[in-house]
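DM from R.C. (forwarded with permission)

"hey, sorry to bug you on a friday — could you get me a structure for this? deadline for the figure draft is monday and I only need the backbone to look sensible"
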Amino acid sequence: MILVTGGAGFIGSNFVLDWLAQSNEPVINLDKLTYAGNLENLAALQGDMRHIFVQGDICDFDLVASLLQQYQPSAIVHFAAESHVDRSIHGPGEFMRANIDGTFTLLEAARGYWNTLEADDKANFRFHHVSTDEVYGSLQPDDAPFLETSVYQPNSPYSASKAASDHLVRAWHHTYGLPVTTSNCSNNYGPYHFPEKLIPLIIANALAGKQLPIYGDGQQIRDWLYVKDHCSAIRRILEAGRVGEVYNVGGWNEKPNIDIVNVIVGLLDELRPDPVGSYARLISYVTDRPGHDRRYAIDAQKIEHELGWRPAETFETGIRKTVEWYLSNQDWVANVTSGAYRNWLDQNYSDRL
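My reply, with the result:
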């Protein structure tokens, strides 16, 4: 049995679904169900006794400790985090609480539980921390991609809070011996992605005939990773990753944001054409966000050479699957885009247009 935090969110729910499709090992899924946590993501598991959902906060030490003692998991996979840069700019406090205090609480509960285990179980236990390439800061156009040894230079409240959590995980390993692994991933995309992020936002706005907002000149470069490839990488790290090690997980897909938007527009023109004309007419350049990093790029050679993992999807295959999923799941999109979400869009974009 494993404990997954944030397993009703975007990456977490994909991981839970993939884990139970690949294994009969049950999952305890701890999620607070904030705006980005959605049990609809896990509807396919309704009635599946291998999935035990618990609504709760990772900052609640007593709850986490009781779950560990009750279920005796062999691993903790820690996804739970506030993750949207724009939201961290508007309200950094919740990012500090969830990402730093929450990780500290989990580590302390895990350390107490781990110390109660028998020798074999203690040796086999893992605490896997899921982090981001944004902790490394921004790259210049000709810079080499981020390595696991790259200097941390976070530039937003979000990335600073994730950097702090990475350091906590490292410290709990080196100070207390807790058997940890960490992965720093590039930009994920795919099914169940909350529509505040670029790809689902562009799809949703295009289908609604709304403007497609592009920050600045649209030349910010990201490495894109299909979410199911990310899930397979984490499974592989749990299987064979070395204790105390960090593994960068990327898709080998560096692309400027405007190119991403143009690919989505082309797919929508093909798969759901608008009688009015190409969705490209909706592209609108808006004021850039403060501290917007120019380029991220992941060098994923370490996980490839040590663990034999490579992404299965190219960007072209992954983005087509993603657009097709959103077109087939418009009810899901409608259900998650509540009034609170629409108010957030107004707050973030009204002054930029």
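R.C.: lifesaver. The longest strand covers residues 126-132.
me: no worries. The domain at 2-192+224-252+295-313 is CATH 3.40.50.720 (Rossmann fold).
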